[in-house]
């Protein structure tokens, strides 16, 4: 369900009671939605009525499946609006297809408890990403540098050249923060040889701490 639906799941007695009844009958009820600052209170209320509640960023659309049936509320993303129409099917292939979709999304989700903690405590979500697009790589590096008060780097001479050619002015801002007593500046481990020594000296002159290691 998209982020607007948890409100209906706890505010409307027929929906809430249906979840509770199913759970009491031994049905395993799994609910996947996007938990936000806007709907967190409803998600907390929803937790006891289902077996498992999970969060995934950017959920679009709504559907429900059992072993043999598929339901999709035909509704736009409007708060408090119940679907005027329901798409129903018991076609085996359609049920299996959406079961696969659900399991794929569920495997990428995190528990509601973790997401609620992140929101309430202001904790940055834990994530690991692989960037392959050059523009995304550069934008991510830029974002990290702009937020940093200190940074530690292990790289080849190629990595140092990339920073020098594209982000050197941003690194100087981190050094400015260090001079003001904010953070430990920039520390760099690199394998220094005759081909890299000129570039290394440029970094040293700016106050970047560099150590040599065979890497």
The CATH topology of the largest domain is Endonuclease, Chain A
How far do the termini sit from each other?
48 Å
**What is the top-level CATH class of the largest domain?**
Alpha Beta
**Order of helices and strands, N to C?**
HHEHEEEEHEHHEHHEHE
CATH architecture grouping of the largest domain: 2-Layer Sandwich
Beta strands, count = 9
Describe this structure in words.
46% of the residues lie in helices and 17% in strands. It contains nine helices and nine strands. Helix 1 packs across helix 2 and helix 1 packs across helix 3. The two termini are 48 Å apart. The relative contact order is 0.09. The mean pLDDT is 91.
Topology (SSEs and partners):
Blueprint: H1 5-11, H2 13-24, E1 30-33, H3 40-46, E2 52-55, E3 64-65, E4 70-74, E5 85-89, H4 92-108, E6 110-111, H5 112-121, H6 134-147, E7 150-154, H7 157-166, H8 168-179, E8 185-190, H9 197-205, E9 209-212
Parallel strand pairs: 1-2, 7-8, 8-9
Antiparallel strand pairs: 2-6, 3-4, 4-5
Key features of this structure:
single chain, 215 residues, alpha/beta, Endonuclease, Chain A, three-stranded mixed β-sheet, three-stranded antiparallel β-sheet, 9 strands, 17% strand, elongated
A few lines on this structure:
The chain has 215 residues and is α/β, with parallel strands linked by helices. It is built from 9 helices and 9 strands.
């Amino acid at each position: 369900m998209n982020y607007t639906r948890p409100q209906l799941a706890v505010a409307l007695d027929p929906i809430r009671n249906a979840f509770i009844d199913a759970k009491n009958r031994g049905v395993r009820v799994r609910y996947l939605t996007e938990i936000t600052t806007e709907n967190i209170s409803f998600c907390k209320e929803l937790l006891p009525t289902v077996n498992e509640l999970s969060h995934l960023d950017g959920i679009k659309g709504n559907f429900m499946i059992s072993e043999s049936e598929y339901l999709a509320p035909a509704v736009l993303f409007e708060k408090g609006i119940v679907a005027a129409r329901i798409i129903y099917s018991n076609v085996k292939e359609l049920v299996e297809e959406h079961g696969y979709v659900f399991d794929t999304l569920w495997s990428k989700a995190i528990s509601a408890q973790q997401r609620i903690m992140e929101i309430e405590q202001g904790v940055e979500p834990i994530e690991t990403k692989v960037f392959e697009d050059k523009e995304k790589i550069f934008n991510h590096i830029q974002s990290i540098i702009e937020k940093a008060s200190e940074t530690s780097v292990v790289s080849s001479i190629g990595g140092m050249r990339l920073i020098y050619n594209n982000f050197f002015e941003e690194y100087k801002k981190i050094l400015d923060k260090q001079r003001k007593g904010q953070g430990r500046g920039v520390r760099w481990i690199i394998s220094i040889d005759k081909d890299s020594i000129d570039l290394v000296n440029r970094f040293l002159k700016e106050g970047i701490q560099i150590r040599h290691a065979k890497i």
